[in-house]
Amino acid sequence: MQEKEQINILIVDDEESIVEFIKMGLEAEGYSIHTAYDGLEAIAKAKEINPQIIILDIMLPGINGYEVCFEIKKSIKTSIIMLTAKDEIDDRVRGLNLGADDYMVKPFSFKELVARINARLRSDFPELSDIIRVGDFAIDDGAHEIIYKDRLLLLSPTEHNLLKYLIVNNGLVLSKRIILDKVWGYSFNGEENIVEVYIGYLRDKLQDKEHCIIRTVRGVGYRVIIL
Fold first, then answer.
1. Is the whole model's pTM more than 0.90, yes or no?
2. DSSP state of 181
3. Domain boundary, last residue among 128, 163, 194
4. Which of the ends of the chain has fewer CB neighbours closer than 10 A, N or C?
5. 3-state secondary structure of 128
6. Domain at 29, CATH number
């Protein structure tokens, strides 16, 4: 597992305002950010810092993003997300053929960029991600996601925290009171039945109609069985 500030991201674009916008947002996310404003500088910096992620604009002074992508991919292991001002299929195909790993069209959502960065890190640098694997479950703390049998579960924050707590305590019988204290917090003053409601939500999302994954232990609480 590696902290985000140890994950290097190189932003390459000749428009300073775009570089600063991305840099500020990703630094707030906790990443270590480096910048370059032309193709030759990008190649030199990439070889110097070995970034896990490169956000690379196509239209650069000197040599373009395609050439930069090709040169960098020959020498270091990195994941390149290319940026372009137009959504042309030929441009995307050319970039991908030269080694680009993903593609985004300007203007883009910063939230989507972060999601794509997280996806590239999970795919290309799994050793850096905060992933707990138990049976068919994968808990990605960095992305705040839980995957079950290769299917991303769409969970609310409380559902996520509850399912994570059940998974990491696989095989143990957990009372409603313990679950409330650990998931909702010791200061929670609501009814214990809220646990039963959320267990129902999780069973629906897991398609656990027979209660084979989350089992009810009558008079005690719940137990997750993961083989």
1. no
2. I
3. 128
4. C
5. helix
6. 3.40.50.2300
